[in-house]
Amino acid sequence: MKAAILPAQDSPLETHDDVELAEPGPGEVRVKVVASGVCHSDLSVQNGTIPLPTPIVLGHEGAGIVEAVGEGVTKVAVGDHVVLSFVPACGECYTCKHGQPFLCEQSNSSATGGMLDGTTRLSRGGAPLFQMAALGTYGEYAIVPEISMVKIPDDVPLHVAALIGCGVLTGVGAALNTAEIQEGDSVAVIGCGGVGLNVIQGAKIAGASRIIAVDRFDSKLEMAREFGATDTVNAGDTDAVIEIMGLTEGRGADVVFEVIGLGPTIEQAINATRKGGEVVLVGVPRMDVMVNLNAAFTWLYLAKTIKGCWYGSSNVYEDVPKLLDLWKQGSLKLEELISKEITVDEVNEAFADMQAGTVARSVIRHAHAD
Ligand code: PAD
Ligand code: ZN
What we know:
The chain is α/β, with parallel strands linked by helices and about 375 residues long. The chain has helices at about 40-45, 95, 160, 165-180, 195-205, 220-225, 240-245, 265-270, 295-300, 315-330, 345-355; strands spanning about 5, 15, 20, 30-35, 55, 60-70, 80-85, 120-125, 125-130, 140-145, 150, 185-190, 210-215, 230-235, 255-260, 275-280, 305-310, 340, 360-365. The protein contains 11 helices and 19 strands.
């Protein structure tokens, strides 16, 4: 099969059509990946922000059709349409049972670039290939744990459903699950990419009355308005914290989201939050990023709450159907997130577009020539 492979850190991706798949093992499923979003976290593997072993098939935001099931698989059957989840959710471990399936203990193995047992199912020329998040949606097919997918109705277009797998669950979940937005709140979102735009539409659904979008590209700020932002700040021109203060009567916003993953913008998010307000950190920083906070003011005198948001604090089995309902009711934009449809051979250009700020999301539609 064909797949886009990252051969080594800081190298361009290479597309090859001689990637081999093993048969799905017990509890595993072969999925024909129909579409995959291109997320900043894929780029973060390429540039070492998210360290994973190479060579690796990237891609963790996808949807497809179940083609074959391994021994003991009960959650899905051949022919089912599924959204892939970049965090497996077993429902049985300590964190799943404590209402935090987005931290399922089975996902600890994701850092190995392998399946749940750490071994791989992909190879090329006899050498093993790793797969991002036990998925690897830049491949036309993927062997995936059955606990890493959610069945969806057949009438949902799969290229639209793909985006739910990461950007929508994470962004909308950050607003609806992680944060506690009250009706009428002021919200600021720093970073309006594929994930940040979803935070904006989530904040709107949660009832925020003022949504301040911050980005360094006017193109992104225009998209932000379409997704529900009421005010925009170009961080390249001005000091985002002062601008947010000015738009919130000098108090700071009730809830501020950081959706980039840089030390300075994380500090901006904390400083732009009102006293007693909430900061939600969504962007994934490099491993060596530290933040300098004044302990007395941040937490004590100003009583701010700082929350980390992994996968939108989602329960994928409940949240995927909920998001699809919101989309069917017209409250959630999905098609509008797709700026470009591409082939898997064009993924390097999609990384460049993402960095240039010209796209919300590029979506790969696999051609399945084999
Ligand atoms: P993206 O590249 O589409 O969007 C990032 C946005 O930030 C772009 O619009 C940039 O223009 C903007 N930006 C960059 N630097 C600055 C700056 N200094 N000031 C203002 N704006 C700036 O990425 P994305 O939306 O796909 O992902 C965003 C982050 O979220 C990234 O770090 C990714 O790894 C992370 C992520 N986290 C989770 C999670 O579970 N927490 C899931 C998925 C993605
Ligand atoms: Zn992602």
